[in-house]
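Reopening this ticket.

The earlier resolution said the output was attached, but the attachment link was broken on my side. Pasting everything inline this time so it's all in one place.
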Amino acid sequence: KARGLHRFVVGDGYWLPPVSKYRDALWGDTAFLATFAELDHHGPREGVTYFGALYLEDEGEVPVWSGERPRVGAYLRAGWAPLVTLAEVLKAKGCDAVFFVPDADDGLLERLRVAGVRVQRMPLRISPAGGDYDLMICHAGHGTVAASLVAGVPLMLAPRYVEQDENSRKVVRMRAGSRTAPDASADALRRVLDELLVTDICKSAATTFRAEHSGYSPIASVSRLASGIDIILIAQLLRTSGVVQSDRQDRVNRG
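Inline output:
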């Protein structure tokens, strides 16, 4: 601001609290809420525009499924304690599960295969058209949660950080998913999976979210954000140009 530059902030809501002694520093001169009202950590709020979540819609690949078994995707980290136990539980429940664990070494990937799940080196792509997954398991990162709900996919959430925990609470509150503990036992995992795969409560809520945001595109959202920034910058340039022209005219008038 000291250099006279307009400060734009784009955030998913967590770092944009409505009331804070650091509000000016956090919000800049213009802030864009890149989330949905249902997922806003401090919302829903009145009098604001929600641009929708930003994520890579075309990243990765959709798994090739076999048969009619429940189709489960898992985007998890190697350090999550129940990782292999979860793979064993999913196999016992007859699920066709595909894991993406980006920080796993070859040894851990092999343990997961032995436990009964497939592993994928590429990220799991979640098509907005839906129908690719019956369940997504993740650490409740904002992008994965949003992409899953836009596709109508219920969630099993294993948050590791405060922000992820807040994402989980939002999803659980709308009944589109369930949360599991970082040290969940096999029995606890089975109970959560039964709720998500056997009953229709979470699937119904996720389907409702999808219907309410039908046609949403993060690419289109980025375009709207860029247009909003352009409008403000052009207005500033016009004002600056007007000041310069006025100053020049004053000099001419003064001779």
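Reporter confirms the inline version is readable. The mean pLDDT is 92. The CA atoms of residues 22 and 32 lie 17 Å apart.
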